[in-house]
TrEMBL record:
<dbReference type="InterPro" id="IPR006660">
    <property type="entry name" value="Arsenate_reductase-like"/>
</dbReference>
<dbReference type="GO" id="GO:0008794">
    <property type="term" value="F:arsenate reductase (glutaredoxin) activity"/>
</dbReference>
<protein>
    <submittedName>
        <fullName>Arsenate reductase</fullName>
        <ecNumber>1.20.4.1</ecNumber>
    </submittedName>
</protein>
<keyword id="KW-0560">Oxidoreductase</keyword>
<dbReference type="InterPro" id="IPR036249">
    <property type="entry name" value="Thioredoxin-like_sf"/>
</dbReference>
<dbReference type="Pfam" id="PF03960">
    <property type="entry name" value="ArsC"/>
</dbReference>
<comment type="similarity">
    <text>Belongs to the ArsC family.</text>
</comment>
<dbReference type="InterPro" id="IPR006659">
    <property type="entry name" value="Arsenate_reductase"/>
</dbReference>
Length: 122
């Protein structure tokens, strides 16, 4: 299991606390320092079953500077969104937990973190 975190994020710290309390084995990726490539973002999106606009933090300053709220949310714009996430990783929703079964979740709630745990323990 891998968890993409921003250490300054309370949701990330909460997810790590829960994983530790459950004795889970995981790898931490500080994605603002170890920025995911476009291909890695595509892979995670596939595991999440989501589109890039679904994991974009649209209230971030970079999102406003890019005018993301006006970008089309359709297949033809998908690569543009992914490129923006790779170029501005702060836009990526966090934490993202990849489970051992090949799936992934955005672990913003305790329930989502527990879902990743159960998927990894199967």
């Amino acid at each position: 299991m891998e968890i993409w975190i921003n250490p300054a994020c309370s949701k990330c710290r909460g997810a790590l606390t829960l994983l530790d309390a459950e004795g889970a084995g995981y790898t931490v990726r500080r994605y603002l320092e170890d920025v995911p490539s476009q291909d890695e973002i595509r892979t995670v999106l596939g595991r999440l079953g989501l589109e890039p606009w679904d994991i974009t933090r649209t209230q971030e300053a970079a999102a406003q500077e890019l005018g993301l709220k006006d970008w089309p949310r359709e297949e033809s714009a998908r690569d543009r969104w992914i490129a923006a996430l790779a170029e501005h990783p702060k836009l990526i929703q966090r934490p993202i937990i990849t489970a051992d079964d090949g799936s992934a979740v955005v672990g913003r709630t305790e329930e989502a973190v527990r879902e990743a745990l159960s998927r990894s323990r199967q």
